[in-house]
Amino acid sequence: MKKQRKVKVAVLVSGGGTNLQAIIDAVAAKVIKNAEISLVISNNASAYALTRAENAGIKTAIITKKESDGSQELFEDRLIERLKNDEIELIVLAGFMSILSERFTKTFERRIINVHPSLIPSFCGKGFYGLHVHEAALAYGVKVTGATVHFVNEIPDGGEIILQKSVSVKKGETPESLQQRVMRQAEWIILPRAVELVSKEIIANRKVSK
Ligand code: GAR
Fold first, then answer.
1. Quick check: pTM over 0.85?
2. 135, 133, 106: which is closest to 187 by C-alpha?
3. For 6-150, where are the alpha helices, taking DSSP H only?
């Protein structure tokens, strides 16, 4: 059987990029076999994630709302144009701190996935991002939290769940320590796995539609 071309992935980032690094490492370790990272786009020019991409020899782009006249619509137009020009088949939001409109999510239906640092439907939706998620989980007093990878639709953190992994909350935990453990024990494991799972699905659909 003819070997299938790998799925072209774009990773969208805003910050440190440890989840991007987990995907880069998973490609190198062949945990991800059916996808390649073709492009990293940041909406923040000083994101360390850009350095991680450059170190791995991956093409980068900076597209910001500020340089799009502060307009979300124009910002998304520029993102869509770039993603289409580069023939991207799967978009991974890895610490991408901008909520995308329905117009954007409908353009790439079932082709956008996101990693969220809680067990959805807990501590998710508007306002729940980064450290705030872990602050809320500790304030509530949950004994188990974790991470979720899901498809992205028009509802923030509301798309179909792909993978989840739980993490126990320890005594004396701080939001920072919990964030680190959730990343290490959950996010960096399930995000690469989800990239591989969805990429396989995309390749299988290619064969059907031929
Ligand atoms: C990660 O914990 C990710 O789950 C979270 O931001 C962090 C980014 O870290 N994303 C959200 O909260 C999205 N709602 P990274 O830049 O080191 O991957």
1. yes
2. 133
3. 18-28, 48-55, 72-85, 102-107, 131-140
For residue 90, what is the enclosing H or E element? strand 90-93
- DSSP state at residue 207: H
pLDDT number for residue 3: 76
Single out the residue of 42, 41, 37 nearest to residue 56, CA to CA. Answer: 37
Rg (C-alpha) for the chain, rounded Å, is 17
Catalytic pick from 116, 132, 134, 150? 116
Residues 7 and 10: their CA atoms lie apart, in Å, by 10
Per-residue model confidence as pLDDT tens digits over 184-202: 999 999 999 999 999 999 9
Please state the atom number of ligand 1 nearest to the C-alpha of residue 132: 12
Query: How far apart (Å, rounded) are the C-alpha atoms in residues 152 and 159?
Result: 5
> Which residues have C-beta atoms less than 6 Å from ligand 1?
13, 15-19, 49, 94-95, 115-117, 129-130, 133, 183, 187
Q: Are 185 and 117 in contact (CB under 8 A)?
A: no
| Catalytic residue status for 116 | yes
- Distance in Å, CA 4 to ligand 1 centroid: 31
> What pLDDT was estimated at residue 4?
84
Question: Over the chain, what is the mean pLDDT?
Answer: 96
pLDDT digits (tens, 9 = 90+) for 6-26: 999 999 999 999 999 999 999
